[in-house]
Amino acid sequence: MKRKNIKINNRIDRMLELPKEVYSNVPKITITGFEEMVIENFKGILEYEDFFVRINTHIGIVGINGYNLSLENMTDDDIKVKGKIESMEIERAIDDN
Asked: Which of 18, 40, 42, 74 gets the most CB atoms within 10 Å of its CB?
């Protein structure tokens, strides 16, 4: 059943020319310089300190290290992290299939 849904989603993508993050839960991460990061399609905030942020997405956890980090412009779907971003790591969720 999962393969059938993937094929349908691929057809929709080609027909409508929509980016995948628009019609799915796949996160989109946009980094501007070393001072701003926007994560679209996030699930929640797991940990927040001024030097470390962990954000849960539908495909894994995004960890951000830096200084003076702050969370801004949060909506139900996206979040902005500002500050001196030093590094980012992605911990991919384990797929049960």
From this structure: 42
- Give the E-state strand segments of the chain in sequence order: 28-32, 36-40, 42-48, 52-57, 60-72, 78-92
Residue 62, in any domain of the structure: yes
Give start and end residues of each alpha helix (H) in the chain.
Answer: 2-16, 20-23
Closest CA to 84 of 37, 29, 27, 30: 37
For 37-56, what is each residue's pLDDT tens digit? 999 999 999 999 999 999 99
6-28 CB burial, b ≥16 within 10 A, e <16: eeeeeeeeeeeeeeeeeeeeebe
Q: The whole model's pTM is what?
A: 0.73
- Is residue 61, in this structure, part of any structural domain at all? yes
Identity of the residue numbered 38: V
Q: What residues are paired with 38 via a beta bridge?
A: 30, 80
Q: How many domains does the chain have?
A: 1
Token pair of 39, please?
């994560």
